[in-house]
Amino acid sequence: MMSLPGSSASNLLRVLFLGLSTLATAARAQPELHVPAGLTRLQAVEGAEVVLPAWYTLRGEVSSAQPWEVLTVQWFLKQERKELNQVLSYIGGTVSSQPRVSLVYSMPSRNVSLRLQGLQEKDSGSYSCSVNVQDSQGLSRGYSSKTLELNVLVPPAPPSCHLLGAPHVGTNVTLSCQSPRSKPAAQYQWERPPPSAQVFFAPVLDAIRGSLSLKNLSTSMSGVYICKAHNEVGSAQCNLTLEVSARSIGPGASVVAGAVMGTLIGLGLLAGLVLLYQHRGKAVEEPANNIKEDATAPRTLLWPKGSDTLSKNGTLSSVTSARALRPPQGPPKPGNTYASTPTPSLTSRAGSSPRLPWTDGPPSQPISPSPGGISSSALSRMGAIPVMVPTQNHAGSLV
After folding, report:
1. CA distances from residue 197 to 62, 194, 200, 347 in whole angstroms, order as listed
2. Are 219 and 142 in the same domain?
3. Taking a C-beta distance cutoff of 8 angstroms, is the pair 45, 152 a contact?
4. DSSP labels for 310-369?
5. Alpha-carbon distance 268 to 258, whole Å?
6. DSSP characters for 57-96?
7. How many domains, in total, are found in the chain?
8. d(Cα 180, Cα 161) in Å, to the nearest integer?
9. Could you list the residue range(s) of the whole structural domain that residue 229 is in?
10. Who contacts 88 (Cβ-Cβ below 8 Å, separation ≥6)?
């Protein structure tokens, strides 16, 4: 029987022990993924680069100079109201990833940290890493995963400044400032630079909406106003020049005044036309209802006193008198006022009955002479009085 030298036997036993230990470790190994404590929520600025740290170990493994396992690594991004998105994978020794995404260390490696370059706001979300370990025989030895939260912050974009209102002495205006993009939402600050340095605070300043209220303006308030939009990762600003001028009547006020005056004049003209139309209508109706002033007066007849009786309708009904039977005493005197009137005299010599003159109205009925052919002069000496006989005009009115 042969015996081995002591040193050779010792080396052989050592090799056999290491081999058996390795097989036992592979059989008992369980992968466990790790992330730094307190770094489960990360923040980064848009445009920068960030690393999501992660590595795994095999639970129960004593030591290993090189990974003996077959590794599968996958990184996923989960966002609200969106489907799960795979951003990187390492399967069978091949890495595939989306743009701007890579592994920090070359594979195979137990450090599976993820690098994101040129960050954008849309890169925010929950990143989960999963590790699956197989042995050389293709048997799965375990699975492990961890999740990291990434929030990409956006500094304020350059804001825009606006003036609301007319900057006249004694008026009120509002200066507004808004940044179109900022995460988180920007806060605003208004100030004036030297030589009129001034910083504004509430209540004239609304730091959330970015508005500055200036009341009862004066010329001393003219100048440059600066608005600064800022959040925890950056700031931007804009400026506005305020020029306060004396109050003046603008073209709008002149137009309103002209419109009011034109309306008043138009109403006055309309009222004048209405009054003129009404006046002309009355003037046409009045001649038909009034007595004509230029109508010829009717002839008068002389009758004895107390012997005339008129009916209600204005016609001569009857005349009786005892004095009328007396014969005439003589010719009428030349100075008798009644002889000059256009009224015809009653005479016994006239064969035809005397008639009244023609008027605008219908012809009057002939009047019979008094019995005995007494003249007007005789009647006058007897004490008779003249009587006016009414007549009618074209309109039917009594004259």
Report:
1. 70, 4, 10, 128
2. no
3. yes
4. E-TTS-EEEE--SGGGSPP-SPPPTT-GGGGSSSPPP-SS-SSPP-PPP-SSSPPPP-PP
5. 15
6. EEET----SS--SEEEEEEEEE-TTS--EEEEEEETTEEE
7. 3
8. 12
9. 160-242
10. 73, 74, 75, 95, 96, 97, 98, 101, 102, 103, 114
Domain contains 109: yes
Helix (H) or strand (E) holding 160: strand 160-164
Same domain, 34 and 127: yes
Residue 129 maps to which CATH number?
2.60.40.10
Residue written as token pair 């029987």: 1
Domain boundary, last residue among 90, 121, 153 = 153
pLDDT tens, position by position, for the chain (399 residues)? 444 444 454 455 444 444 434 444 444 568 899 999 888 899 999 999 999 999 998 886 655 545 567 889 999 999 988 999 999 999 988 999 999 999 999 988 899 999 999 999 999 999 999 999 887 777 777 889 999 999 999 999 999 999 999 999 999 999 999 999 999 999 999 999 999 899 999 999 999 999 999 999 999 999 999 999 999 999 999 999 999 998 755 555 566 677 888 888 988 888 888 888 887 776 655 555 555 555 555 555 454 444 444 333 444 333 344 344 444 454 444 444 433 444 444 333 334 444 444 444 444 444 444 445 566 677 777 776 766 655 655 555 555
Main-chain dihedrals φ then ψ at residue 337, nearest 5 degrees:
-65, -30
In a domain, 10, yes or no: no
User: CA-to-CA distance for 127 and 84, rounded, in angstroms?
Assistant: 10
Question: Which residues have CB under 8 Å from 300's CB, separation 6+?
Answer: 341, 343, 386, 387, 388, 389
Domain contains 221:
yes
Task: Tally the residues of the chain.
Answer: 399
Task: Tell whether 124 and 181 lie within a shared domain.
Answer: no
Last residue of one domain, picked from the residues 220, 242, 264: 242
Same domain, 101 and 146: yes
> What pTM did the predictor assign?
0.53
Residue 207 and residue 141 in one domain: no
Per DSSP, the three-state class of 381 is: helix
